[in-house]
Amino acid sequence: LAGCTSKDSVTALKTENEALKTENAALKARIPILDYKSYKSNELGMELSYPATWVRTDTEQLAPFFVSLDGIANVGVAKEILPQAMTTDAYFDALNQRLQAGGYTLSSLRETRVSGTSGLTVVYLNRGLAQVFVVVVKDRTAWTLIETARADQFMDWAHTFNEITNSFKVQ
User: Long-range pairs for 31-38 at CB < 8 Å and ≥24 separation?
Assistant: First the structure.
C-alpha cells in the first residue's frame, strides 16, 4: 500500500496548496511596485536604477546620493582610486576594520557579482541604522554602494534595496 493516497489526503493537500497560494498572493501584494529611474555616470564608471519618487541630492562629493521622500531610506555610491591593484577581499578587510572601529556591527556577509566581477554584500548595524554595503574592486578602483534605513524599518525597504543592488553596474 506504499504510495497509495486516500481521498482525504488528496483533499487535505489541495486545501493546503490553496492556502499557500492565497498566502503567497498576500505577500506579493505587500511588495511595492515602483517605477525606477536610471542614473549613469561615465566619470564614476557606474550606473544604477533608483525609485522614481526618490530625490537625488547634490553633495560636495561627486558620488550620487538618493533619498526616499519620507527620508527613512537612502542610497549612496562611493568610488575610490586605490594606490595599487587590490582584491575585493583585501579592500573589504580594511573597510571592515574602519567600520568596526567606528561602532559598526557586522550582521551578515555574502559573495555577489557586480558586472561580472566578484564582490561582497555586507549588512551592518550601527546606532539604530541598518546598512547594506555592496563592495566591488576592479584593478585599482573600488566602488561601494551603501543602502541605509532605520533598523526597525529596514525590512520594509528590503525589496527596493534588492532592486537597486541588482541594477548596480560598474565599468
Answer: 31/159, 32/159, 32/160, 34/160, 34/163, 36/163, 36/167, 38/167
Strand partners, 113: 118
Element (H, E) at 62: none
Q: Would the CA dihedral through 145, 149, 151, 155 be positive or negative?
A: negative
User: Can you tell me the distance from the alpha carbon of 171 to that of 139, in angstroms, rounded to the nearest whole number?
Assistant: 11
C-alpha to C-alpha distance for 10 and 96, rounded to whole angstroms: 53
Tens digits of residue pLDDT in 113-128: 999 999 999 999 999 9
Contact 97, 85 (CB under 8 A): no
